[in-house]
Automatic annotation (TrEMBL), chain A:
It comes from the Bacteria. This is Integral membrane protein. Keywords: Membrane, Transmembrane, Transmembrane helix. The chain crosses the membrane at residues 12-32, 44-63, 72-93, 108-127.
Length: 139, 119
């Protein structure tokens, strides 16, 4: 095995595209909000910035490829899913803490629920990738 | 002018999404004709970027902040070309589906641009 296992072939390319869109969306949105009106909703804007960082790292691991990157991506996607679920539930349970929306508000409703669907799809793809890899080694 | 261009680009982006989605459905990669279609849509987004900047320079102001307006214009400008290059790297149905997703994202950006300019 000389070349790194590719994570962006087949359906992976669509995942990279969607994660890339989320990186641009979350990072530019939080950068603008933090620089202009941070005091209005510091918690919401910080969470959006955190989401942007996580999306950025996952995009990087997918493009890089290889087993270590795949494992790192699995961990981050799980953290991302947890983040969407916790922040989503938090925004519904205590709207007062969020004067303005985050990327993960209401489970990502403002982004067509892509934030909650994406990590599930990505985890499926990454775990399946490992299974296929093991079969290839055994064969 | 800008509103008409926004509506036209949104419709063209959705047509592109449907067309490339159809190619993905039939298990085909993006072909020359698809790239011509992407070129047309990308050209419309470019025209929109130019018109938007000209209108700003003339002193017209969007309903929301100008920075947000320009950021969305740039996002719309880059959207389809980036998806197109990714479909060049992935010569399967998944490349077609990526362009379809790109067209859909562009249509969403157009809706947001409409709100930002008019609100």
């Amino acid at each position: 095995m000389t070349s790194r296992q590719k994570l962006i072939s087949g359906p992976g390319i669509l995942l990279v595209w969607l994660y890339g869109v989320m990186v641009v969306g979350a990072v530019s949105r939080s950068a603008y909000q933090i620089s202009t009106e941070f005091d209005r909703a510091p918690l919401a804007y910080s969470l959006s910035a955190l989401a942007g960082l996580v999306y950025g790292f996952i995009t990087y691991t997918l493009v890089r490829g290889g087993e270590r990157a795949r494992r790192a991506a699995v961990v981050c996607c799980a953290a991302e899913l947890l983040g969407v679920l916790v922040v989503g539930a938090w925004t519904l349970a205590d709207p007062g803490a969020f004067p303005d929306a985050t990327v993960w508000s209401d489970f990502g409703m403002g982004y067509l629920f892509i934030p909650v669907l994406l990590p599930v799809t990505a985890l499926y793809w990454l775990v399946r990738g490992r299974a296929a890899d093991r079969q290839a080694v055994a064969a | 002018m800008l509103v008409a261009l926004t509506v036209a680009t949104a419709v063209a982006a959705l047509l592109l999404a449907a067309w490339c989605g159809w190619a993905a459905w039939r298990d085909q990669p993006t072909k020359d004709w698809h790239f011509i279609g992407m070129g047309v849509v990308a050209l419309m987004a470019t025209a929109q970027l130019v018109v938007g900047i000209v209108q700003l320079a003339r002193g017209e102001r969007p309903g929301q902040d100008s920075v947000i307006f320009v950021a969305y214009l740039l996002g719309a400008f880059a959207c389809v070309p980036v998806a197109g290059f990714m479909s060049l790297a992935e010569r399967t149905r998944w490349g077609s589906l990526t362009v379809a997703a790109g067209g859909f994202v562009l249509a969403v950006l157009q809706v947001r641009l409409y709100d930002i300019w008019g609100a």
